[in-house]
Protein: Transcriptional regulator, LysR family protein
Organism: Catenovulum agarivorans DS-2
Amino acid sequence: MHKVSLEQWRAFIAVVDYGGFAQAGDALYKTQSTISHSIKKLEKTVGNPLFDVIGRKAVVTQFGESLLPAARSLITHADNLEHEAISQKIEVRKSLNIAVDTLFPRAILAVILNELTLEFPNLNIQLYETVLSRCAELLEDGTVDFGIASTIPKGYITKWTHIVEMHATTHKAHPLASREHIKLSELKNFRQVVIRDAGLRSNVNSGWLGTTNRLTVSSAMEAATCVKNQLGFAWLPDWLINETANIDELVPLKLESGVTRSVVLQLTFRLSLTDDPVMQKLSGLFDKYCGNTHT
């Protein structure tokens, strides 16, 4: 067990810095006698005098001067450790609100959240599934801290993170499924399942909307369910088609042109959270699993 406490080293440094026991006591909010007792105890432990008292001034000895750099380093490390421990304690108990576009691969999201919660086991996560402009609204309102979507509000840190390929898809029993070299104009004769913009303040139509006969739903998974039940065709992300094709018998249409649509999803978070440990970890996980990739 160490015989010298951190408080004794603090008292030693304070006497050096302020030139006397009384001044050190004022700086550390302690009495002069408390500082004097700490220094005497420290000198007894190290076996050498640390100060020469000249009048009312305490002058550090050559031996004391030799201990000063290590003493300062010790106190600095102790203060940093204390600050980090307190900050981390607060960090792991806080909540994190995330908005993720419905087109983002759910399997990748699950892996990312799993790794995040392994490092921050006490983190409470609120996950919002959004479509088009809704993510931007939640960020602007302060409802979420982090978002991944195709539409990002101005003034936020953003980086290109993921490209999702969309295919016009239908059930294998649908009349369009067996046709070759389908023109986009021919799709006007069939019902299209459309994912609505979830924005409350503005709605932005996106993608091919060439048919007037539409069934509008609120998520990519709901659109896939409608296609599975032969309610029409829809533009669905590759990952969703791959996950459901064998079971739900979804097939991409054989279009003559415009076979795929690419949607760029961007990662963003509030500028004030740039140094936040949880945010840094989350951002790093998105880079690790989907940075600048296609799916």
Notes: The mean pLDDT is 85.
